[in-house]
């Protein structure tokens, strides 16, 4: 049973077809990659899945529920987490607060309880803190716990953003270019985290990246896009042999 | 500094017993999350806060009645400033309409507590524990009604629209004289009566002493409530919306609901401040709720420190203590008039002064008085090494 089913989704902006009839499925423990040249529509697909953009046509089913037409916060509450291509952290807050925000949907206390900081509020905050510490250990963020994220190096910010998504305890994780702009060592670290998330935490992942080596090494299946259209879909080996993919990447597109 | 703190605590599990002792001389070594997440997380903070409260209380017997009255007013304005800080500092929704919500609170309180069947609208319920929540709730209701604007407008546009509220309010309050007494006349304000004891008349102590202690206690209650709110899921969600609203929505924060909540809570604080403030002088005049009052609150928040409760309090004290000085200007500088119809008058000088202060702080210390305090503290911590 697929976790996510995308069926014939089409999205356009005043004439620009950002996504043009894309369909795919993501399995329960799959690491699914989406690749394509700049402007191919990869980020747009993530924006559709997380409710930021509303496509003109198509169907998206996540855990047997239709996603289209729902607000981003409703989709988040259903268990869909993502990271952004350009880090979108809460810049004035510390690493701890950013991670605690990831758990927003898991709290069940109200305003009055928060103001009194008693009973439910206090207990749940302490519980959440313990969970967050596990993520801090897992992503090796301990040294930065109390730093405002805007002061952190880019690579660490990317990791904090991944941590925030994990704190949501997602049932599907979307990663938009997690290693963009990273050096070799940071890339290897991130690759290790991605594999651990899938293998140890059992969370299915959709990965977008321009780093072909990384994608081909990690992914179970790959979807190739060009100008919003689906060029190929298959295992890394199949996709690499596909002449249409080679054409899209080697500039036969003009 | 921060590193010792983080690594010290990294692997230590939460001790369920809660209050565990920490070794002496290691103020930043936490042995449980309870300790780490406490409001006053170091011994120094506990001691200083305690001393400050004691000092404030002891002022009630030390200071002259006139000064106590000014300070009591400052404490009430601090409640209002904390309120503005919730919506503007934490949630990032710039509001110039704070004076409007203060007015709603002032008139709700006056109407609930005013004598029944008198010259002005009155329900005859003078007990403070009735009219204070009423003032807060009615103002909060207006805040909630206005909030949906914030989901459509941002930044400057929101500021201008909330400014419109102030003008609208000014007009209504001038016209509706059964409620407000009309411009230049005004009406009696809410009576601070506690269990049958009118605190605005000499009783256990002088009128000013009673009011001073009342306002101090209320300020502490409102400040602690705001601190708790700020460190809860709700305060975090507010900051998330301020810093990056799309990301906030994508991690599960419903934007509309939280903006409405921020306006509601902020207006609740404003309403309570409005009800309390005029109960000190015993009199409300509809001309008080002009743009100047909104600007005053913004100055308090910016000068004190955005998104800190202690900053809002410091800013309110600063501005309130500045006022007796500016109000005595006409005696020192004859060109400055005390009459609002003459230019230049005291109120114009005040507006310009607040503007200047806001600009100076924004340029030189955007974190406000709170930022200056942090700098002084780090200076002494690292003394004699100056880096
Ligand atoms: N909000 C928007 N308004 C108008 N056009 C948009 C918007 N978002 C995306 N587009 C357009 O949609 C197309 C796909 O953009 P998208 O960001 O999805 O590409 P991408 O595959 O993520 O590219 P990159 O590899 O550069 O990140 C582009 O032509 C882009 O200009
Ligand atoms: Mg992109």
TrEMBL record, chain A:
InterPro entries named in the record: AAA+_ATPase, ABC_AA/LPS_Transport, ABC_transporter-like_ATP-bd, BCA_ABC_TP_C, P-loop_NTPase
Residue ranges of every copy of the ABC transporter domain listed in the record: 4-252
GO-annotated cellular components: plasma membrane
UniProt keyword terms in alphabetical order: ATP-binding, Nucleotide-binding, Transport
SMART domains: AAA
PROSITE patterns according to UniProt: ABC_TRANSPORTER_2
Keyword Disulfide bond assigned: no
Keyword Nucleotide-binding: yes
Origin superkingdom: Bacteria
Molecular function as annotated in GO: ATP binding; ATP hydrolysis activity
PANTHER family linked to this entry: ABC TRANSPORTER ATP-BINDING PROTEIN, CONSERVED COMPONENT OF ABC TRANSPORTER FOR NATURAL AMINO ACIDS-RELATED
Protein name: Branched-chain amino acid transport system ATP-binding protein
Top-level taxonomy: Bacteria, Bacillati, Actinomycetota, Actinomycetes, Streptosporangiales
UniProtKB/TrEMBL annotation, chain B:
InterPro entries membership: ABC_transp_permease, LivM-like
Chief localisation class: membrane
Membrane topology field: Multi-pass membrane protein
Stretches for region Disordered: 1-25
Keyword Membrane: yes
Transport listed as a keyword: no
CDD domains: TM_PBP1_LivM_like (cd06581)
Membrane-spanning parts: 47-64, 70-92, 99-116, 128-149, 156-173, 211-230, 260-280, 292-319, 352-374
Protein name stated in the entry: Branched-chain amino acid transport system permease protein
Originating species: Nonomuraea endophytica
